[in-house]
Structures are given as structure tokens and as C-alpha cells.
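ugh ok fine here u go
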Amino acid sequence: MKKKVLITGVAGFIGSHIAKKFLLEGFEVVGVDDLSTGKLSNVPEGLDFICVDLSLSTSFKEFPNDCSLILHLAGQSSGEISYDDPIADLQKNVVSTLNLINYGIDVNADKIIYASSMSVYGDVPDMPVKEFTLLNPLSAYGVGKLSTEGYLRVYQKVLPYVSLRMFNVYGPGQDLTNLRQGMVSIYLAQAIQSGKIVVKGNLERFRDFIYIDDVVKAWYNAAINPDIKNIEINVGTGIRTTISELLHNICYHFSGTTYMVQGSTPGDQVGIYADINLASRYLELNKFTTLSEGLFLFKEWAQKQETSNKKLK
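structure:
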């Protein structure tokens, strides 16, 4: 029998894609979201949906007691926004996970998979960053992610964990209305709306952009393999891409689009890309969707969404 899976953040970009994968594979899925940023329309059909705030311990009274796997993607996901209200970020990302850890222990879950982030590293040398690198986050968001990883390690004997440190995820389903989270989606939305992209920070910064389908594969493999536990793993491509290269790619797909640099983002990393040795070994991440192909697929989806929205008006 397939195990019952609890997926938090199921109304969000990544969580909804992962839920679809588990449903497709025949798992029974319980999806959780408070809809503060996620959209009910993102929640896949065929799962049991619970709308609660995970930072409230009373919310767990509604949860089933037979979930074997917990996939935790809920939370505040922007380094920039974390500066607006660090306490709210703490509640959404750290307190909620502590509550979920307690739940996992109570129901004797096999393990919890956690959506960590490249932001735990902070500024690093211009080389692939390994999981055992010294961690020095630059934002309140990064501090929260690192703190949560620490709590997971504290409870690993009673609730095994996998922390997936995700790099810049992009692709169809990303929120194009949120211009403060998701570098690729921000630039793509501006290209569609006005043909003018405003860049916060210099063009020689660099990132590791990974397409959503590759991320879903990583999460699925981390969850179903019982031997993968009590470990932190980068989820990236290992490819160093400058912001300038990303913009040239977007402008290629959106003819006539221009860009300009204006200001910067507090707590922004100068550059980072992943060492993927552990991802290759444990998660079978060896082949990736190229940035050009991924942007094309994202563009196709986004333009269909734009056309559909215009018809509804």
C-alpha cells in the first residue's frame, strides 16, 4: 500500500506541483495551507485539503493520525519580505515547523522533508557551495531557515528529517503578481506586462536556476527512499548563471524587452551556486532542464495565463 503523505504549502507554487506528483503515483495526499499567499485554485483535485495556520498549535487537532511522510513547504518564502516583519517570519517559518515536528512525533511519522534554502549560506566564495560550508545567513529569512534546520537535527532520533536547500526555483505556476519573491518570475512578469525589467542589484551577481520539474523529482526521491534521512542536500543544477545571462535569455524570448538596474535588495547574496554531488548521489539529479528550455516553457504558460485573464475581464 502507498503511504499517506501530508504536504504543507499545497496551495503554493512548489507544493502544488509536488502534490500532483504524489497523487499521480497513487499516494493518498492530505494538503495543508492557510491561503495567506497560496491560491485555492492551485490545490490539486483528489486530495484532502485542510486550511489552517501551522503556527497555531491548536490547528493540528484537524490532522489525521496516520500520515507516514510529512513534506513541509509552507511558510514565508522571501528574504526581502522577511525584513518587513521578522517576528511574523519567525512564526511562519520556525514556530510552524516546531509544531509540525511535534505532530510528526505524535503520529510516529517515518520522516519529515523540509523546504530549506540556499539563503542559509550567506555570502560564499565564487565556487560550488557544499553542504558542510560555514553557514552565515544575511537575512531574517535565512536565519529562520537555519534555525529550523537546527531544530530538525535536535529531534532526528524520534523524527528523521531531510532538509532540501533549494536554490532559485522557477517555472509554470509561479506567482507572477508577486514582484518581491522569485527572481525569474519577477523578471518574466515585467517582460510580459511592460517589456521593461527593473533589476535590483548589479548584473554580475550569479545564481543557480532550477526548473520546477527537476525540483519535484528531488522531493519525490527524498521522500520515498527510506535510506535518505538526517541529511541536508542542495537542490540546484550546479550551473553558475549571472543575472546578465538570465536577462539576455529572457530578452531573447521576449523580443523588444529592455532592462535597467535600480537600487538593491537588503540581505541579497552576491552570488551562489550549488555543489550537487549529494543531490546526484541521493536524489538522482543528474540531468536538468536547461535554462533556455525552462524559460520557453515558463513563457508559454505565462502567455496562456495572460490571454485567459484578458478573456475573463
